[in-house]
Specification:
homodimer, globular
């Protein structure tokens, strides 16, 4: 059974290698493209190296604590190391492929839409395939070495969570510090356009897309993927014995193959309609998974029940993604209202976006609540884990589509900076626009899957801690609920002010360069890109420490000092407000972004109008909400549950 | 026992009448003051009359539903009517006193600080005394007529909640529609100062202060006061029999007398330091209450335990208020940081305020959690209700201080509009500044007491519905938690967009008047104030319907269709996210407001600077958050629990 998963993992990794070779084979003839692409690659890899150097120390220390202080056993400590290493390797390979593919996409854009799309998607797919490949390899491998002991897998999952915490939070801070810094000084003060090579922070901004939206996003979904599989394996035996365990392994294997098929399909369609290709691949892999879930269910005594639970997760995943689009796409009413509110000024634009973000929580939360009720109805707590697995089994496809976005975005930046002709930039602009839509859907999916994963881990924690009921009338649970509900607010406040601090440093540096070297704005002098890259890198690594400690220490402290009931309340409270805040911030940010774009395209005044200025303020407010604070909450709620699950035996 | 409460209530009402007569005795010699004050009074009373006319229909229909459809008995339906009527009467008397006192304060300001302060506080104290007087009268009276049946009191409490819902939501929409409309056109577009009589919306703006901050706030705390007393009475018998019931009545009576003493003290000190007088009164009444709680506890078998629970509530109330000041006063770091962030632009100012608001949830929530743990430790679920009673027993004093603020604010507006000399305006400005501090503290107190009241009602609901445990692992509870957590987001989105819609209508009207009658800006023509008052009135009454329905129907629907466990989850989720969102919005709004003021006083550029423009945007964003959406959530969480408690026997 774990063998099936290992074989599928091997297939995914092999396909990733093929895709990687494909990318390398694509030529980069233009010297300017090669130079700029090279700077982005260097910056991105330098960041990752420094981040991993810090994390290596952290991971070894935590492994020691787990083994020696908490007495969790050597196997769990080793599994923890494996989880951390594999997540890091997945991030490294995925980002390396992305920073190779971005310049090749810019180059291929000279030959038309289809080859450019192929290059960008190829780049994104390596991240997707490595996430599922290495995630499944780790889970299958750890179980193979510790047969009959799924609890050892919690160590692996915690390792993945630790990396995700720092990659997502650090990546989010990196990308927005660079983005806000580049925009506020470059666009607003100096009046130069986006992606102008005269802006000293422009390379850091492009590096940020990779660091945040490729590596950060990948580590987030790596964690969700591993977390939901581990909790499903933990809950399976109690529900249906070895057979149910085998079902989970088989379902995960089928999901990987479905993703591989989907990715292969997108690659070979060679259609001119990028959006259609991506949608076809996504839906095909979902359909394949539904078929596999049905077929595998036939081998079980209670097959139809498990099938129904899995399908409720798949449906919820697709629905939550679509709902996100409804609130963040310029084609729908919400964004149009924000754009028109910007006409009365920045304050009304901000209020309209905030209220859109709040309103956008309604349906996704009801969908999730319905999925929980359905999944539980069919298979109890195991059903919730199965729904999460259903949502996440084809994450290889989802991450490929998600990571395509920043590659296309970078390609646009490179084309702009290297002075490509207008028709080339038109191609990259189109690919970028498709990427924006997929990014919004991907964000909804990340939150939805994080919520289900956190709830599945929560159920596993309750089992591991021997809690048969978590009674809200118990004052410890009630106090825990309140305190837990507060944590996502605290966490968001910390990450938002981290971005502000880092952005301020970036602003100072960009201003300094433009002031001290007037040749930069004149175009006769090359700005010091590396200095800006360095500022973002340092800031991200320094600023991720405090939120990271909050995420790890608060569940540990509450569990150890106030008991397992209070910890259960804490987890429930954090999950509830976390999901809501994350959806609100992601959608408000996305809606402001698209309101700005629709004004730029002519609605309500166009560039330079008062409405546009108001919309730029909205967009700048939304940036750290949607790309730093919101995604970081996904990690917070999963990691807190993971920490609780790991320390449950001690409580 | 209920007799002691009735006697105390009578004392409070008698004192209120004396205060009212005192106000009437103060002269208003200046004809301009009388004219402008008269317009404000007319507008305020017209609003209240129209709102009550709508509510009368609503209340009679609901009473009919309760009696005939839900079969709750004639006594409960009559108690419901009594609760609604007494809350309405308290609001009417309190607001009438406030709109009489505002012009007298403006007049008295000519004779110095002390007489002006005395007039303003006198005006506010009528609201405070009527809230506790009529609240206690109702509870004592209903219990006297239905001895041994505290459950009939839930009808009374629901009546109070219904009025509170519409007064708080409608009042919040009224005041901010007028305020935003007056500011955006008057200050920003036409460039005339605040409270300039040439602004057509200026009377509506001043009416709004009374409608929102006097009547709305009073009905909110009337609801909290009644709600916590009712839940304490409901839970008392199970905990300690008749003796405990008598303790609650006695404590409430002592609290009223403590408030009366405190108010009397503030009135007679005749100090020049308004802030010191108010603080002295507040602390004196708290100390008297502590003494009474100790003394009354001596009559009980478990007296020290009840005393400890009461004290935990009193302490939490004072602490939450102080913490609010920490995040919203210009003397502390948070506001200074926002003011300096405004220097980089509106976006950074907004982000800084948002993150300050989020951060400001941390300590109040931990204080509340600690109070719950302590109160429960001493007296179980009854302890939570006792803590709420401890917090709210001296609400007569708290409301008096709160309502003093808008009276002083109005007096400043009247002095400005009637062209009083600078030294008069200096007096009113000083009183207004003191009012701003007390308003921020009062907001923190309202939220904290709403949270404890909602939790006490929640515990009462669990008892009434026969739930001995509310298990989060039960999927209905989990789904309920998620859906409930969403409701404060939905509710906030609805109220914020109500304000936007209403403000837009106001903006159109003000622009129309200024355009069609150029004499207005020249000062030769009187604007049509009544038209603007009318627009706010209509908008408030129309816009309060949808959020009101959400608050009433969602618990009823979830309870009837998904069962009492799902409803319990819904209440818990709504309370947790409600408290957090309310604190965040109130404090972010207060912090932006004071950041703007500190910039106006010279920090970082002064009036007209870029930083000031950014701060004005922050303030405008914060206005509906702190004065409409945030306070409305207080009502939402209490009312949902009340509805649940009332329908519990049907589930």
């Amino acid at each position: 059974m774990e063998i099936s998963l290992l074989l599928a993992a091997a297939a995914a990794i092999a396909f990733a290698l093929l895709q990687r070779m494909d990318i390398q084979r694509m030529p980069v003839e233009d010297a300017r493209i090669r130079e700029i692409g090279g700077s982005i690659r260097e910056g991105a890899m330098a960041y990752l190296r420094r981040q991993y150097a810090v994390l290596a120390v952290f991971v070894v220390v935590v492994a020691g604590i787990l083994w020696l202080l908490l007495g969790l056993g050597r196997a769990a400590a080793l599994a923890f190391l494996a989880g951390a290493v594999l997540s890091a390797v997945a991030g490294f390979c995925g980002m390396r492929a992305a920073v190779s593919a971005n310049m090749r996409t810019a180059q291929a854009a000279g030959q038309g839409l289809a080859p450019a799309f192929r290059a960008a998607f190829c780049g994104g797919s390596v991240m997707g395939l490595m996430v599922v490949g290495l995630g499944a390899l780790g889970i299958g491998g750890v179980y193979l070495l510790n047969p009959g002991h799924p609890e050892v897998l919690t160590g692996f999952s915690l390792g993945a969570s630790s990396i995700a915490l720092f990659c997502r939070v650090g990546g989010g801070i990196y990308t927005k510090a660079a983005d806000v810094g580049a925009d506020l000084v470059g666009k607003v003060e100096a009046g130069i356009p986006e992606d102008d090579p005269r802006n000293p922070a422009v390379i850091a901004d492009n590096v940020g897309d990779n660091v945040g939206d490729v590596a950060g996003m990948g580590s987030d979904l790596f964690e969700s993927y591993v977390g939901c599989l581990v909790s499903a394996l933990l809950l399976s035996v109690a529900w249906g014995g070895e057979e149910a365990l085998a079902y989970v392994f088989g379902l995960a294997a089928a999901g990987i193959l479905a993703s591989v098929f989907g990715i292969f399909l997108v690659k070979t369609i060679r259609s001119e309609d990028a959006q259609l290709s991506l949608n076809t691949g996504t839906y095909l892999s979902a359909i394949l998974l539904v078929g596999a879930a049905f077929f595998l269910g036939g081998l079980l005594a209670e097959g139809l029940r498990t099938f129904a639970a899995v399908v409720s997760g798949i449906a919820a995943g697709l629905l939550v993604g679509r709902l996100t689009e409804h609130y963040t796409s310029h084609r729908y009413r919400a964004v149009k209202e924000i754009a028109s509110a910007c006409g009365t000024g920045a304050a009304t634009g901000i209020l309209s976006g905030l209220s859109c973000g709040m309103l956008s929580t309604v349906w996704p939360v009801l969908v999730l609540a319905e999925a929980i009720l359905a999944a539980y109805h069919f298979c109890g707590a195991f059903g919730i884990a199965l729904a999460a697995v259903g949502m996440l089994a084809t994450v290889g496809m989802v991450v490929s589509v998600d990571a395509y976005g920043p590659v296309a975005d970078n390609a646009g930046g490179i084309a702009e900076m290297s002075g490509q002709p207008a028709e080339v930039r038109a191609v990259t602009d189109h690919l970028d626009a498709v990427g924006n839509t997929t990014a919004a859907i991907g964000k909804g999916f990340s939150i939805g899957s994080a919520a289900l994963t956190a709830l599945a881990l929560f159920a596993s924690y309750a089992g591991a801690a021997g809690l048969t009921a978590i009674n809200i009338l118990d004052p410890r649970v009630m106090a825990g609920l309140l305190a837990g509900g507060m944590l996502p607010f605290l966490f968001s406040a910390l990450t938002i002010s981290s971005v502000s601090r880092a952005a301020n440093r970036m602003i100072d540096e960009v201003r300094r360069q433009l002031r001290e070297f007037p040749g930069i704005l004149a175009g006769s002098q090359r700005p010091d890109y590396a200095r800006c890259v360095d500022i973002s890198t340092q800031a991200a690594i320094r600023e991720m420490a405090l939120p990271g400690m909050v995420a790890i220490l608060s569940p540990a402290a509450v569990g150890l000092f106030f008991g397992k009931e209070a910890l259960a309340g804490l987890l429930a409270g954090a999950t509830v407000t976390g999901v809501l805040l994350a959806i609100m911030m992601a959608n408000a940010g996305g809606a402001w972004d698209n309101a700005k774009k629709s004004i730029e395209e002519g609605a309500g005044g166009g560039k330079g109008s008062q409405a546009h200025k108001a919309a730029v303020i909205g967009d700048t407010v939304g940036d750290p909400l949607k790309d730093t604070a919101g995604p970081s909450i996904n990690i917070l709620i999963k990691l807190m549950s993971m920490v609780a699950l790991v320390i449950a035996p001690l409580l």
